[in-house]
Specification:
mainly alpha; 68% helix
């Protein structure tokens, strides 16, 4: 429900911004709504096709220092080795 409200508000904002700042015609007609609607539709299709999900997954992979890419396999292996070495060599505090 929140997503539907968000996309409806996004359409309204796109239309208002286009009509107020970009459209140079003297009156508001059907053709004034075509460009903002097409931009909105492309965002909506991108969201429905899973672009948001794959972009979010890629962002989380980068933040987690693990990137799925054929060029970075060596780098990923070095990161894994470094993590294992850091986990095994953590100093333990002795309370004597």
């Amino acid at each position: 429900m929140k997503k539907n409200i968000f996309f409806a508000l996004l359409l309204i904002v796109f239309c208002l911004l286009y009509i107020l700042f970009i459209d140079k015609s003297d009156c508001i007609d059907f053709w004034s709504f075509v460009p903002p609607f097409s931009i909105w539709l492309s965002f909506y299709i991108f969201y429905l096709s899973g672009g948001y999900g794959s972009a979010l997954a890629q962002s989380k992979a980068i933040r987690g220092e693990y990137v799925v890419d054929s060029e970075t396999e060596d780098f990923d292996e070095m990161l894994k080795i470094k993590r294992e070495r850091d986990n095994t060599t953590t100093p333990k505090h002795d309370n004597k």
